[in-house]
Amino acid sequence: MADVTATKSVASNENGNKKMKCEAGEGACEDGRIRGLVVLKKKKVTDFTSFTSTVVGVGRGLVDKVMGHELAGKDVSLQFISAVNTDPGNELRGKLGKPVHLEDPVNTSACLAPGELAFSLTHHLDEEIGVPGAFLVKNNHHSEFYLKTVTLEDVPGHGQIHFVCNSWVYPAQHYRIFFANKTYLPSETPAPLSKYREEELENLRGDGTGERQEWERVYDYAYYNDLSEPHKGPKYVRPILGGSTDHPYPRRGRTGRPPTKEDPNVESRLPILQSLSIYVPRDERFSHIKFSDLLAFAVKSVAHFLIPAAEGQFDRTPGEFDNFQEILKIYEGGIKLQKNQFIERIMEDIPSELLRELLRTDSDGFLKFPTPQVIKEDKSAWRTDEEFAREMLAGVDPIVICCLKEFPSKSKLNPENNPDMRVYIEENLGGRTLDEAIEEKKLFILDHYDTLMPFLRGINTTSTKTYATRTLLCLKEDGTLKPLAIELILPHPDGDEFGEISKVHKPAKDGIEGTIWDLAKAYVSVNDSGYHQLISHWLKTHAVIEPFIIATNRQLSVLHPIHKLLHPHFRDTMSINGFARQILISAGGALEMTVFPAKFSLEMSCAAYKDWAFPEQALPADLIKRGMAVEDANSRHGLRLVIEDYPFAVDGLEIWSAIETWVRDYCSFYYKNDEMVQEDTELQSWWKELREEGHGDLKDKPWWPKMQSLDELIQTCTIIIWVASALHAAINFGQYPYGGYLPNRPAMSRRLIPEEGTPEYEELGTNREKALLKTITPQLLSLLGISLVEILSKHSPDEVYLGQRDTPDWTGDEAPLQAFKKFGKRLEEIEQRIIDMNSDGRWRNRVGPVKMPYTLLYPSSEVGLTGKGIPNSISI
Ligand SMILES: [Fe+2]
Fold this sequence. Notes:
The chain is α+β, with helices and mostly antiparallel strands. It is 37% helix and 14% strand. The protein has 27 helices and 20 strands. The strands form six sheets. Strands 2, 3, 4, 6 and 9 form a five-stranded antiparallel sheet that branches. Strand 19 (629-631) and strand 20 form a beta hairpin. The model is unreliable at 1-28 and 44-64 (pLDDT under 50). Bound molecules: fe (ii) ion.
């Protein structure tokens, strides 16, 4: 691998490169000149942060031409660096070639993406340079540009050499280094490139001081100390997450913003209107046209003016839906958005197509949402017990349900369950004893007690009024689950020393008991949707991945095989997490407004992090831990599912196994034995820093892999890729399809079950729908909530899915390219398997009473709200 052999193949990007090669000129000319092609993007089309100055479509051809001529000439220079000969004056560095400049724009429009420009380039063959392994670029132009690729054609004896850059180049960066798409372990780096490799990592690590600037690329760690706004008063103060035993948390990217005047430990926040400018290393900023870019603005818009404007649009009770029919109006006809001065001003500033996207309005100003899949085929099947239970296996949070291993269920905080639970369960076991049913693995539990109970007293002092819930279910002969009982638990009003108040409810169809059963199911959904958003989604995917991104960029060179393997799975995550800190998870942010734990939201996720364990994020380990699978060498993937028809696990194991095979094929190509893993200095620094800094609050946990063997490396990388791609997709993209219809998945509850003898209690028997709607999320917050989950559930037009890469020439090594192709083929087979299973009536949990096929782990997708598709990374 130390041999610098350039790729001869144009096959990896058959259409693109072949065409570019033709038009850039064929190969080395007789006079010693090597033709090259530089592809870059200009700033404007990709910069979506300024709505008013964005050039969208209109007049783009003209802009291309003007920008093209601006960039050609002396303003941008490249100097190639030898991969074989060192500089006579400095033996640690490869010899530098003479500066060359961008020539005229090349007409290769057929193979360029919108906004891209191509320039020809002439590199003068110089025997002392020999084969270039890197180049240095200087931007003396007045504004930044996005350098995508540089390709040298027909370098004698080597053929084509690709430099995959994908990076913003600013005048303020002085100069930048880019390497050819070769892969080297640190010890195998050609000597002339070693120093450049080290220096580039030093640049990315920075010196840990100062406030980061827009053009910088520094990756560093910080605590979550930027969620509070102390100057607004105690209501806007939250604990610092990370760096303490009480509040352990993964690290976030450091921005270096100054501390607040009120508290030197709290980082000051950007004003709301500048939220989109929060620092993330420049290449982590959304560089493409994404819906994600609109997130902050959309949420802000909804909160600030859509909600007040929509007030009073539903008849009878202000601020309430009266019945389910009324809710359906927001999907069917829409409701009229009242214009006010603010809306009119916004309308003047924002292009109408963006406005429609942001406000979900049609041209007449009607507020309208797409019909969520869960009510598309059947408007009332969501209310059945079967669907309620099915969503624990095939819904948006299928990673909580456990097989009951003993009764009372093991609870850290309270080992005793309510004795009524035993009675209700035994009534429904068809003659089995409870112990027999446990032995046969027929009983399951959805238990939110331990997570919620420490916070419940505090939560119920806010506008939220709710219970901690435990749901017991049994597996029926037809493979579906049936809820047996729901336990609703409250802290004792007189204090914890008096125990707690627990009541068990059993299924009922009619009368007051029927309504109470509906309410009990709603409290379970409320518990689960809060757990889902804050723990399954935010903590267990978004937050835990960020330290891996930071450590990878600080410790693994772009030449390192593991950097090349993981990099696509980190795209846009720091950016979306940065926005989330500004808009969603901050004190008073949209999440606190729309999920029941309110101001305790992030603290609850912090408590859950105490129990997070990296190896348990592997799907097989997770299933075994929850008792949902047992090891069985004779079963597919070595595991036997306790519920055979568990759609998330069935599809998940296929995807997990495909990722693992791909990672094994890839890693085994570079590491021939365990010693090579142990002796890889960058890899060892990466893993040490990840454990000690990135996840530093858990650094002493015994479960961390030691990173001493190839198997540990494979397992680690498989987990990272699984979490960033498939797990996030399964948790994220069903949010609107299931939760866009609030009664199915309410995120809040604002009253407890009414006391017997009160008029509210009597209403339970007379107006069932109203009783539920008076309990769950109120109308206006429902609109905010579904606006948010709609945005979170969409795929952007430039999404890159599992099995795809945005740059075909991401490596020059043929065997990994072939293994990656095999991975893509395997994913296509999995797609077909999912289609087949969804249409096979045997698998009842895959469609359920709502007739909604399980597609959340279907790898590819179209743009928009599709309820399927596994993007490579957490980008929304
Ligand atoms: Fe997400």
